[in-house]
Amino acid sequence: MDSHTVRFLLRPCWLGWILLAATPRGVLAIALGDGPELLAQDLLQHHPGAEAVTDDPLLEAWLAGVLATTEALAAEAVPPLPPLDLRGTPFRRRVWQELGLIPTGSTVSYAELARRLGAPQAVRAVAQACGANPIALAIPCHRVIGSDGSLRGYRWGLARKRALLAYEAGRNDPEQPGGTTHLSKAAWPADRA
User: CA-based angle 12:17:23, to the nearest 5?
Assistant: First the structure.
């Protein structure tokens, strides 16, 4: 498999269906949806040569790690998130990295996220970066809300955002396994646009 090869798998999960796509460098996309066909179609529009797989131990392990982190399985230690093959502008990558620092069970507003990035006037750009996030769950854009506390858009549907936030609110102790979803520095690739 060369560095441009994209392989993906689809599985049912508590949020509907989940698609995980990866290159040899790491996870390229995690998408959520109501059925496998639309998820595969969307991926193939962006990566026409992507290959569906049914049995890939590495992709299966990466997906299990993401779901374990999200679902806070009863395991003693939640597996680390897989490496990521992020593609985006430097600003979007900064936003996505900052999203990984929001503790499970917490939310921040788009305006607060912009302030944390040192760009308080970039609220709209922050919202666009959240909307362009290709990696659901592992990059927790669902934890960003409006300044008035309202739920705003979510690429994979407001019902899923609401369900994720409600689920996470029940386990917001960072001292417990799965109490935070944070991206280790090892998961972040070297900067590239």
Answer: 100
Beta pairing, strands 26-33 & 16-23: antiparallel
Judge whether 141 counts as a catalytic residue. Answer: yes
User: Residue 17 is inside which H or E element, if any?
Assistant: strand 16-23
Asked if 25 contacts 39 with a C-beta cutoff of 8 angstroms, the reply is no
Who's near 138: CB < 8 A, 6+ residues apart?
27, 30, 66, 69, 81, 82, 84, 100, 181, 183, 187
Percent of the chain topping pLDDT 90? 59
Q: Quick one: pLDDT band at residue 79, thresholds 50, 70, 90?
A: low
Catalytic residue among 30, 66, 129, 141: 141
**pTM (2 d.p.):** 0.82
